[in-house]
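To the wet lab folks,

You asked to see what we're planning to order before we commit. Fair enough. Below is the target structure as tokens, and below that is the sequence we designed to fit it. If anything looks off to you, flag it before the synthesis order goes out.
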């Protein structure tokens, strides 16, 4: 599970939908009281940003005409984890041609 935390307008469809699904998985993990320590240690998630990030991704999905029918369940938020959007943007561009193209188009 990974929260990229980059501007959603710079994400390809696959990565946008992927992060959205992973946010729902992450909340499921928290609700089952399973450990997320590994994700925190690797700077992959920010628990305190989950709700705002979900809203941001849904806004972008709406903008692109994708249907969203999955409200985020209630969960206990806490200050945990730190993600670096700047290095993540570079990594997304390196991993994914479609994301790279969106970054180029916007610059
Ligand atoms: Zn959702
Ligand atoms: Zn991508």
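Sequence we intend to order:
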């Amino acid at each position: 599970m990974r929260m990229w935390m980059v501007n959603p307008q710079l994400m390809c469809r696959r990565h946008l939908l992927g992060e959205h699904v992973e946010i729902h998985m992450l909340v499921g993990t928290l609700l089952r009281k399973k450990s997320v320590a590994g994700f925190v240690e690797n700077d992959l998630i920010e628990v305190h940003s989950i709700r705002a990030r979900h809203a941001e991704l849904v806004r972008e999905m709406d903008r692109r005409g994708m249907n969203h029918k999955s409200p985020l369940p209630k969960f206990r938020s806490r200050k945990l984890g730190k993600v670096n959007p700047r290095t993540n943007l570079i990594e997304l561009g390196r991993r994914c041609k479609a994301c790279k193209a969106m970054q180029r188009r916007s610059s």
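Structural context that might help your review: Residues 46 and 81 are 4 Å apart (CA to CA). The pocket of zinc ion (ligand 2) is lined by residues 12, 14-15, 96, 98-99 (CB under 6 Å).

Thanks,
Computational group
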